[in-house]
């Protein structure tokens, strides 16, 4: 707090009069109430109330914008945390978060079609849990806006009173009653002081805060009572305002705002900002926690990427090292199988040599697939970007697997042509669709059906491979994102390989700018959809 001199108080201002009211009344006439509302005073009043209105509008906009920004930050942090948890853990974590935020913020899972109409609310995606609705009560922002708005209009009113009053030591009883009614309407502690530090008027909130009944209280006595229960911190001090914070022993925090009224008088506004400071502290803690989580996520991401690169390099080197001796084994087995340097003797040797050759070729194909996947993942194997006719790619795949489907007793249906033109690697696209078709035929029983079709739209095409095979459970589908995952015994039949077909197909699709989606049900079959973008420029090149 500051003294009356430091507050800009002078010799004139709001002071208690000493018997000179009748002289003023006689000088202005018996009908004059003691007011002088000139054109200048009217201009001051209009300017003051206009400024107060603009301040309230700006303050309301800024306060709700800050509240929405803080709510969005909290919602994103909660959604990111809940998306990594199971449904039960997510509900427990959500309940714990609601306990942390108390009544200030409410968060709950909702359906995507739910209508959220609260003023301070938003919906953020929560991964597998659907959507998370986060809302905050607007009562606190409205109360803060109302408090500051009341202070602004009170200040405008006091400035109007100061501009229109006559220059004399103290308002008459009529004026004092007007001041009292004005002060009582302000929803915070307010007191007006003369230039000498004498109390002019104060409202009930100020009296209850200082526990005073004495109308002769001075400014210095009020300061002593305020700081008796805590300590004071200066926040701002300039020619127009002095802002302080009073931290009380009971944990409450009061904001004391002192502003000059002219002619040496000044006013003091006292408001309770305890809840605001607690909310700010909570938001600050949330921001710190969010920064910590972001840093940890970045560190773990770097570790995971380094581990993935090490794994890919290891697989690439391993594949190279093993392919060389396998080529020797296959070559020598082939020579022995053809008995280039004479007969083997026992007829069983020919059967053994054929088994060695087939096993070596199977291993060579497996390691070749591992090497291809490693090169596709680390980007060392670049795919061509040529104009490719989608119908030609599907025709090559259909021709390749038509004989296999016939021998297995499986019906193979091919959809109508689309005329779509893609930009990509022709051989890579054939291999991508071929891997999916191979899986579909491999896991479809005799008498089943496999359909290869394509659909075109304005922004891309979708290739669908649908079978009526054994299908997969949700757990098996979740494991398809990991290479070498086969799942259960039904997927370990002879010739399946290392389980890289889907992984290689997905890598090719992603490098071509598309993605793969899989839908499957046990005993009903599987549908694999590959979405790829269309390149109009490539279509023009094909047409030319």
TrEMBL record:
Q: Does the keyword Phosphoprotein apply?
A: yes
EC numbers for this chain: 2.7.13.3
Q: Which PROSITE patterns is this protein grouped with?
A: HIS_KIN (PS50109)
InterPro entries recorded for this chain? HATPase_C_sf, HATPase_dom, His_kinase_dom, HisK_dim/P_dom, HisK_dim/P_sf, Sig_transdc_His_kin-like_C
- Top-level taxon of origin: Bacteria
Gene3D superfamilies membership: 1.10.287.130, Histidine kinase-like ATPase, C-terminal domain
Which residue intervals define the domain Histidine kinase in the entry? 317-536
Catalyses: ATP + protein L-histidine = ADP + protein N-phospho-L-histidine
Q: Which UniProt keywords apply?
A: Kinase, Phosphoprotein, Transferase
Name of the protein in question: histidine kinase
Q: Which organism is it from?
A: Devosia salina
């Amino acid at each position: 707090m500051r003294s009356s001199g430091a507050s800009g108080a002078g010799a004139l201002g709001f002071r208690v009069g000493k018997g000179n009211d009748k002289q003023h009344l006689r000088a202005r006439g018996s009908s004059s109430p003691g007011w002088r509302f000139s054109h200048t005073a009217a201009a001051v009043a209009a300017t003051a109330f206009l400024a107060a209105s603009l301040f309230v509008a700006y303050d309301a906009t800024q306060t709700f914008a800050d509240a929405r920004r803080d709510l969005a930050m909290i919602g994103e942090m909660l959604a990111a945390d809940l998306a990594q948890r199971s449904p039960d853990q997510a509900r427990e974590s959500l309940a714990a978060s609601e306990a942390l935020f108390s009544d200030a913020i409410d968060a709950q899972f909702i359906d995507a079609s739910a209508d959220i109409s609260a003023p301070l609310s938003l919906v953020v995606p929560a991964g597998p849990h659907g959507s998370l609705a986060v809302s905050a009560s607007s009562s606190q922002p409205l109360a803060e806006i109302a408090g500051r708005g009341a202070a602004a209009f009170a200040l405008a009113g006091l400035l109007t009173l100061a501009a229109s009053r006559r220059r004399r030591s103290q308002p008459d009883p009529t004026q004092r009653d007007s001041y009292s009614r004005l002060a009582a309407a302000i929803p915070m502690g307010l007191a007006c002081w003369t230039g000498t530090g004498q109390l002019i008027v104060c409202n009930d909130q100020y009296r209850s805060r200082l526990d005073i009944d004495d109308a002769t209280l001075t400014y210095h006595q009020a300061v002593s009572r305020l700081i008796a229960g805590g300590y004071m911190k200066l926040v701002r001090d300039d020619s127009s305002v002095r802002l302080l914070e009073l931290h009380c022993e009971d944990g409450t925090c009061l904001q004391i705002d002192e502003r000059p009224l002219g002619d040496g008088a000044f006013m003091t506004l006292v408001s309770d900002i305890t809840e605001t400071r607690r909310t700010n502290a909570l938001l600050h803690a949330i921001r710190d926690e969010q920064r910590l989580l972001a840093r940890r996520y970045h560190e773990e991401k770097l570790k995971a990427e380094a581990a993935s690169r090490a794994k890919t390099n290891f697989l690439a080197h391993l594949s190279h090292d093993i392919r060389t001796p396998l080529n020797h084994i296959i070559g020598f087995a082939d020579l022995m199988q053809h008995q280039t340097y004479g007969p083997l003797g026992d007829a069983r040797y020919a059967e053994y040599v054929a088994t060695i050759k087939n096993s070596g070729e199977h291993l060579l194909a497996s390691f070749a697939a591992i090497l291809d996947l490693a090169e596709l993942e680390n980007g060392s194997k670049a795919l061509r970007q040529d104009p490719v006719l989608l119908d030609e790619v599907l025709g090559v795949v259909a021709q390749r697997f038509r004989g296999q489907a016939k021998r297995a007793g499986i019906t193979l249906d091919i959809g109508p042509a689309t005329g779509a033109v893609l930009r990509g690697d022709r051989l890579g696209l054939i291999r991508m669709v071929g891997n999916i078709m191979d899986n579909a035929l491999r896991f479809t029983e005799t008498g089943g059906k496999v359909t290869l079709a394509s659909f075109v739209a304005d922004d891309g095409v979708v290739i669908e491979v649908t079978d009526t095979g054994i299908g997969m459970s949700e757990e098996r589908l979740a494991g398809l994102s990991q290479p070498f995952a086969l799942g259960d015994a039904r997927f370990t039949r002879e010739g399946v390989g290392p389980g890289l077909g889907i992984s290689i197909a997905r890598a090719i699709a992603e490098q071509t700018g598309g993605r793969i989606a899989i839908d499957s049900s046990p005993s009903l079959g599987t549908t694999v959809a590959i979405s790829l973008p269309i390149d109009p420029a490539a279509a023009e090149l094909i047409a030319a």
